[in-house]
Amino acid sequence: MDFMKYMGEKIKVVSKSGIVQVGKVISYTGKQDTEGGKYDELTIETKDYPYMSFNESEIKSIKVIE
Fold first, then answer.
1. Which of 1, 20, 59, 65 is most buried by a 10 A CB count?
2. What does the pLDDT look like over 49-65, one tens digit per residue?
3. Could you say which of 2.30.30.100, 3.30.200.20, 2.40.30.10, 1.20.1560.10 is the CATH number of the domain covering 3-64?
4. Do the beta carbons of residue 11 and residue 65 sit within 8 Å?
């Protein structure tokens, strides 16, 4: 998944388990630097959590919002 295009954007993430979070993308980690080295990871800052990370296997959808 191409997470780089979301850097700095406000997004809505829906996980495969049904978790919905809205926040600003503050970090992208390539699979070579993640635990297990299988999936890219996206970290967002939300109203409730300063850091919330999702790896690409957990994400159902991502939408850029205004």
1. 59
2. 999 999 999 999 999 99
3. 2.30.30.100
4. yes
Find the mean pLDDT for residues 9-21.
Answer: 96
Q: Are 46 and 29 in contact (CB under 8 A)?
A: no
DSSP structural state of residue 14 = E
Kindly list the domain boundaries of the chain, sorted by start residue. 3-64
pTM for this structure? 0.85
Q: Which helix (H) or strand (E) holds 24?
A: strand 20-29
